[in-house]
Amino acid sequence: MYQIKEFSYLCKTTIKTLRHYEKVGVLLPKEINSLTGYRFYEESQVETFQQIKTLQEAGFTLKAVSYTHLTLPTILRV
């Protein structure tokens, strides 16, 4: 498990972006520590992040990405 800072480095993005993605529901941390509020991500979520960025670059909004991600997970594997 990676803390948000480490995960942002792996994804080559900012912590602010990851928090925004969490807020809009496209990429949620696997765990949030109830005492500290620290967010933790798994290595497998790097691929999910990359898929989200690819869809955004193709012109999809985050709302559309969220809908696609929730309803058609196989499209993200193509």
How does this model look, in words?
A hairpin with a 6-residue loop joins strand 2 and strand 3 (39-41). The protein has helices at 4-11, 15-24, 45-57, 62-71, and strands spanning 2-3, 31-32, 39-41. 53% of the residues lie in helices and 9% in strands. It is built from four helices and three strands, in the order E-H-H-E-E-H-H. The mean pLDDT is 87. The protein is mostly helical and 78 residues long. The radius of gyration is 12 Å and the shape is globular.
- What is the terminal separation in angstroms? 26 Å
Radius of gyration, in angstroms, nearest whole number: 12 Å
In what range is the share of β-strand residues?
5-15%
Largest sheet: 3 strands, antiparallel
Mean pLDDT: 87
Helices and strands in order:
Elements: E1 2-3, H1 4-11, H2 15-24, E2 31-32, E3 39-41, H3 45-57, H4 62-71
Antiparallel strand pairs: 1-3, 2-3
Core attributes:
4 helices, mainly alpha, globular, 78 residues
Q: Outline of this structure?
A:
With 78 residues, the chain is mainly alpha-helical.
